[in-house]
Structures are given as C-alpha cells and as structure tokens.
Amino acid sequence: MKRFIPLVIVALFTQLLAIIIWGEYVWLSKIAVGFSVGGTPLGHIQPALWIAFVIEIILLAIYFKKNE
Questions:
Q1: Taking the CA of residue 20 as centre, how many other CA atoms within 13 Å lie in the half-sphere pointing to its CB?
Q2: Ramachandran area for residue 38 (φ above 0: left; ψ -120 to 50: alpha; else beta)
Q3: pLDDT bucket at 7, cuts 50 / 70 / 90
Q4: pLDDT confidence bin for 1, thresholds 50/70/90
Q5: At what angle do helices 47-66 and 5-33 cross, to 10 degrees?
Q6: Are the beta carbons of 45 and 26 closer than 8 angstroms?
Q7: Distant-in-sequence, close-in-space partners of 1: CB < 8 Å, separation ≥ 6
Q8: Are 43 and 19 in contact (CB under 8 A)?
Q9: What is the pLDDT of residue 12?
Q10: CA dihedral sign, ordered 22, 24, 29, 30
C-alpha cells in the first residue's frame, strides 16, 4: 500500500493546481469581458470544488488507514 502514496500525492497536487488554474481563468475572463473584478483568483472558485477536494482527501485517508 505504501508504494501508492507518492502517486496519490502527485494526483492530489495536480488536482489542486487544476482548481487554482480554473479560478485564475474565471478571474481573467471577467476582466477581459469588462466586469469589475474584486478579490483574488482563489476567491472566484466555486465552493463545490473545494468541498469535493476535501472529501476526496478524507476518503483516501480512510482507505489507507483501513488497508494498513
């Protein structure tokens, strides 16, 4: 089981980068269209993405704890 931990870390890091890039894309697209943009790119990420990311981490922790 321990041999999969680096793969899980890489997968979670990649997903986190994708979420951050999505927030930046939304933020910059609002600027390009001419809307007033407040806050940071991270503030424009939908809460559902953060919730799904946290749930995935919790489920992976439970899975690895169970299969120790």
A1: 6
A2: beta
A3: confident
A4: low
A5: 180
A6: yes
A7: 64, 67, 68
A8: no
A9: 92
A10: positive
Average pLDDT value for residue range 11-33:
90
Measured CA to CA, the distance from residue 52 to residue 41 in angstroms comes to 19
SS3 track for the chain: CHHHHHHHHHHHHHHHHHHHHHHHHHHHHHHHHCCCCCCCHHHHCCHHHHHHHHHHHHHHHHHHHHCC
Tokens (6 digits) for 60: 């992976």
